[in-house]
């Protein structure tokens, strides 16, 4: 069972990816004792993976503005030109 912060992060990420990349995006969250690993694939971005510590996960899950900025930064870094 996911922790409440991970559940919230998962929901935010699902909504974010659907809005910014669409339903054909593939993504996965792999929880770990240290936090989580997130991978995203879509034709408009190079496939990428990033790690979040438990503290980062809690911060992003609890702050919609911070979440949006962090995830937009990830998409921008991996956008295909």
Question: Any overview of this molecule?
Answer:
With 81 residues, the chain is α+β, with helices and mostly antiparallel strands. The chain is 51% helix and 30% strand. It is built from three helices and three strands; from the N terminus they run H-E-E-E-H-H. The protein has helices at residues 4-20, 54-62, 64-78, and strands spanning 26-32, 35-42, 45-53. Strands 1-2-3 form a three-stranded antiparallel sheet. Helix 1 (4-20) crosses helix 2 (54-62). It is globular and about 35 Å long. The protein starts with a helix and ends with a helix.
Strand content: 25-35%
Main structural class: alpha+beta
Mean pLDDT: 95
Bulk shape: globular
Across the major sheet, the strand order is 1-2-3
The helix count comes to 3
Show unreliable segments: none
Element pattern in H and E: HEEEHH
The count of β-strands is 3
**Main β-sheet, in a few words?**
3 strands, antiparallel
Work out the radius of gyration.
Answer: 12 Å
What portion of residues is helical? 40-55%
Separation, N- and C-terminal Cα atoms: 39 Å
Chain-wise SSE layout:
Layout: H1 4-20, E1 26-32, E2 35-42, E3 45-53, H2 54-62, H3 64-78
Antiparallel strand pairs: 1-2, 2-3
Helix pairs in contact: 1-2, 2-3
Summarize this structure as a short list of keywords or feature phrases:
81 residues; alpha+beta; 51% helix; globular; three-stranded antiparallel β-sheet; 3 helices
């Amino acid at each position: 069972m996911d922790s409440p912060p991970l559940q919230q992060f998962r929901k935010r990420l699902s909504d974010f990816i659907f809005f910014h990349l669409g339903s054909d995006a593939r993504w996965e969250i792999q929880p770990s004792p240290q936090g989580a690993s997130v991978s995203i694939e879509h034709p408009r971005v190079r496939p990428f993976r990033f790690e979040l510590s438990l503290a980062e996960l809690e911060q992003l899950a609890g702050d919609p503005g911070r979440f949006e900025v962090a995830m937009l930064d990830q998409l921008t870094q991996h956008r295909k030109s």
